[in-house]
């Protein structure tokens, strides 16, 4: 089988290319080397230099391809609303062009890199009123250090729990909005063509070759860069934000599982790609600092209005339908990441 991987030179895409090659697939890559992800672009064997928004480039990349693994995207929350046109162009227009060319070439299998950010806040339960979907946290609460979401009925604190794929989509950042739109576009493509679309909702991915020192870098890379400068990681809020940190090698294996899955023709199937073992941001910063031997993290109380408090997920559906389970533990993964090469 010949597979096109878009974003093939990126952090996640490059790991997927390796895993697919090792599994015996014929892989072709496409990447436009966005500066936010590639501060020092370089030619890579088997990777076509081109933009997924350009129909002619995509058409050529799709030649003799049987399936597409779509990783190309502008990532991160966004610095300001001024980023909106570029996010929508890179992520949504790019996906629309790719899907149109796949339909024209009669290519019927798509694996899409989605994200846990499409959920907005995660799943919560009120002691008195049961499961609840909290409203966005207020500026007044955040300013006074009240970081936990409130029950929309009694305004009491909510206890976090794991979100599953049936949860409503409620994006709360530019990136999240474009990821939700990508899923909708892929679903429309599948219904129109009878193709098989699989959306993998990645949780907090970390590992070797993460991009560093950009406004769009992941929190693990930001903390790692600070520690290498001899500075203490600056942890927002009170550090109690819960996330599911998953190693990039497991993410690549999830894509392999999705490529080999029979899927459901004519529809989009979405899966949480997570470990099922949440940790707080402060736990991650502390584990990383101890592994490096750097300064103890500093809890700053600083907050950003668009951030969600807790987002962790059940990986049960991916295990049941794709046969995928994360294998790399938090402790061993962070220890490896402490000295792994980063992308510069």
Structural notes for this entry:
- This protein has helices at residues 11-22, 55-61, 84-105, 139-143, 174-193, 219-228, 248-260, 281-292, 316-322, 330-337, and strands at residues 2-6, 26-31, 47-49, 67-70, 109-115, 123-126, 130-132, 159-161, 196-202, 204-206, 234-235, 242-243, 245-247, 267-273, 279-280, 298-299, 310-311.
- By secondary structure, the chain is an alpha/beta fold.
- Helix 3 (84-105) links the parallel strand 4 (67-70) and strand 5 (109-115).
- It is globular and about 55 Å long.
What topology does this entry show?
Layout: E1 2-6, H1 11-22, E2 26-31, E3 47-49, H2 55-61, E4 67-70, H3 84-105, E5 109-115, E6 123-126, E7 130-132, H4 139-143, E8 159-161, H5 174-193, E9 196-202, E10 204-206, H6 219-228, E11 234-235, E12 242-243, E13 245-247, H7 248-260, E14 267-273, E15 279-280, H8 281-292, E16 298-299, E17 310-311, H9 316-322, H10 330-337
Parallel strand pairs: 1-2, 1-4, 2-3, 4-5, 5-9, 9-14, 10-13, 11-16, 12-17
Antiparallel strand pairs: 6-7, 6-8, 12-15
Helix pairs in contact: 1-7, 3-5, 6-8, 8-10
Defining traits:
3-stranded antiparallel sheet, 7-stranded parallel sheet, 344 residues, single chain, 34% helix, alpha/beta
